[in-house]
């Protein structure tokens, strides 16, 4: 889809997770005073959180082995690792060699029920990772992979890997399966289908993480009742370290899951407000995630952005502004290139949300200045990503619309009309300056407003995008083609009957597309009339000669 050009906003780095504090001292302390087990529990959480990496460095948990290997096992020699099945399969998947991977798994199937399920999941993940596949294939593949993991969790019982499986499932639901819907809503506004899909997936993720948090709390309580010998055995196996890491990571991931869910809901939804307050409460109870230097925690910048976008939606504009400025200042001071690239998405989001925060706070001139700086930033760093230029135009449009609403409420009708015209011209100017990208801009708008939009409520440029999108869909065939064609004609006729002088530049295009719609309806005379009208009204129109030619051909045929 040419409108989905933004890169996914990943919430983690591909670097290795920092290790939490070792628990051997705690085990020895248990032997010295068995009467205060809860103190040790608190210390374990505290140590784990001090070196929290959360999702910042969390990669998808590896789930191939039938039995979790002990950390005490010696490292394999290089030649042995090179021939390891898991290493080989992972290399094939990383290179997109899905057919070879499938053949290898058939020839050398894993042993055990869990490993067989994980093999099937690996195949689905390989298809999802293959960017040469269609969007529909990749979406179906990641859904299948997550369904496999869900079924495995349901049958896990007391399997010690069930905790990591739950975390991996929630992580994949959010950052793989739901990411497209999240990006569409966060960056461009999204549509009803995006919100419904995102809400369905975030509901699953939140339920999974909530269940995981409860299980981890119960497991920690159980561990605190063990004898020293039993505790040390668990510690040597790596199980204690695992749950120490997962507890803070789960809380952090749950905060992001709640934001994803709030984004899928309307402003009047009480669940949305409840989700946002839960995030604010989490950040208030865990100030370390906001204050620990990013070079240590790897999540400070991301957490500050989360704080800012939450504060903005709770109308704390001063708090949001401080969070965004702090995140950008810290990001600007990073020296390590890997860390800079890892927070690239967070820097971009902070810049976008800072504009929206000033807009919501009524600081329109400041917001407009920030849009100009944002355009300079993407022109210097990301000019190849036209999707960001569309985002900039949408931001500018939203500022003009907010000013129009304020002027209308104050009774300044003429000012409101002027601001509304400036709003849609933000996108029209981008299209006029980039004629080869006009279809991409229309595709973005059409995806946002949808085919069932009430065209009478749309601005002139949105009506053009709707007309173009409806014609594109009718050209693909399908059961709804006739109904969509009727709507396309209605949109075109409505535009011509109600457009103002400011929309005169769009009129030849509407006439041309209306002529196409009439021809597809089997009305060649009406189509010829519209074609010649487009050519006569605007001889400089890009398709004027083509329109006149169509008119002559249709008339000759008649």
Order of helices and strands: HHHHHHHHHHHHHHHHHHHHHHHHHHHH
- Silhouette: globular
Low-confidence stretches: 1-73
Q: What percentage of residues falls in helices of 4 or more residues? A: over 70%
Largest sheet data:
none
Structural class by SSE content? mainly alpha
Quaternary structure state of the chains depicted: single chain
> How large is the share of residues in beta strands?
under 5%
Discrete helix count: 28
The rounded distance between the terminal residues' Cα atoms is: 39 Å
Mean pLDDT, to the nearest integer, reads 83
The value of Rg in angstroms is 28 Å
Give the strand tally.
0
Features:
558 residues; 28 helices; mainly alpha; 73% helix
Structure description:
With 558 residues, this protein is mainly alpha-helical. Helix content is 73%, strand content 0%. The chain has helices at 24-32, 37-50, 78-82, 85-94, 98-107, 113-129, 135-154, 162-177, 179-188, 192-223, 228-237, 239-263, 270-285, 288-291, 294-297, 300-313, 317-332, 337-342, 344-360, 364-381, 386-409, 413-433, 438-449, 460-475, 481-498, 507-520, 524-537, 544-557.
């Amino acid at each position: 889809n040419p409108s989905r050009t933004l890169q996914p906003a990943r919430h983690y780095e591909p670097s290795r997770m920092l290790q939490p504090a070792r628990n051997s001292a705690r085990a020895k302390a248990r032997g010295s005073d068995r009467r205060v087990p809860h103190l040790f529990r608190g210390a374990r959480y505290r140590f784990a959180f001090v070196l929290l990496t959360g999702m910042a460095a969390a990669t998808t948990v590896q789930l191939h082995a039938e039995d979790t290997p002990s950390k005490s096992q010696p490292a394999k020699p290089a030649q042995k690792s090179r021939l390891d099945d898991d290493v080989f399969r992972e290399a094939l998947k990383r290179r997109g060699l899905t057919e070879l991977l499938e053949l290898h798994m058939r020839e050398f199937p894993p042993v055990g029920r869990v490993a067989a399920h994980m093999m099937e999941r690996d195949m689905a993940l390989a298809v999802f990772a293959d960017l040469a596949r269609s969007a529909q294939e990749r979406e179906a593949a990641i859904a299948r992979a997550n369904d496999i993991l869900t079924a495995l969790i349901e049958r896990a019982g007391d399997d010690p890997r069930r905790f990591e499986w739950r975390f991996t499932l929630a992580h994949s639901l959010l950052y793989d399966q739901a990411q497209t819907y999240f990006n569409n809503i966060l960056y461009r506004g999204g549509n009803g289908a995006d919100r419904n899909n995102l809400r369905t997936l975030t509901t699953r993720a939140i339920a999974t993480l909530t269940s995981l948090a409860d299980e981890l709390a119960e497991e920690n309580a159980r561990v605190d009742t063990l004898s020293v010998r039993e505790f040390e055995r668990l510690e040597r196996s790596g199980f204690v370290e695992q749950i120490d890491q997962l507890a803070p990571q789960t809380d952090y991931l749950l905060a992001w899951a709640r934001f994803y869910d709030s984004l899928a809901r309307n402003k009047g939804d009480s669940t949305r407000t409840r989700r946002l307050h839960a995030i604010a409460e989490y950040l208030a109870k865990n100030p370390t995630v906001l204050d620990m230097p990013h070079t240590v925690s790897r999540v400070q910048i991301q957490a500050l952005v989360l704080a800012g976008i939450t504060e903005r939606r709770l109308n704390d504009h001063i708090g949001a502004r401080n969070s965004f400025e702090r995140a950008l200042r810290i990001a600007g001071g990073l020296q390590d290139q890997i860390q800079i690239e890892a927070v690239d998405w967070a820097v971009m989001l902070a810049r976008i949300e800072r504009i929206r925060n000033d807009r919501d706070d009524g600081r329109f001139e400041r917001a407009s200045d920030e849009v100009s700086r944002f355009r300079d930033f993407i022109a210097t760093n990301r000019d190849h990503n036209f999707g960001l230029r569309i985002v900039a135009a949408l931001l500018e449009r939203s500022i003009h619309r907010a000013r129009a609403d304020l002027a209308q409420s104050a009774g300044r009708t003429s000012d409101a009309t002027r601001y509304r015209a400036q709003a849609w011209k933000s996108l029209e100017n981008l299209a006029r300056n980039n004629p080869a990208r006009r279809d991409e801009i229309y595709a973005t708008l059409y995806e946002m407003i949808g085919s069932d939009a009430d065209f009478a409520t749309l601005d002139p440029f949105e009506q053009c995008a709707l007309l173009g999108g409806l014609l594109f869909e009718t050209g693909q065939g399908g059961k709804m083609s006739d109904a969509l064609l009727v709507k396309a004609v209605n949109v075109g006729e409505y535009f011509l009957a109600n457009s103002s002088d400011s929309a005169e530049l769009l009129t030849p295009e509407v006439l041309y597309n209306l002529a196409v719609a009439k021809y597809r309806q089997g009305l060649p005379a009406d189509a010829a009339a519209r074609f010649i009208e487009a050519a006569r009204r605007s001889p400089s129109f890009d398709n004027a000669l083509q329109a006149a030619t169509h008119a002559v051909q249709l008339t000759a045929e008649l």
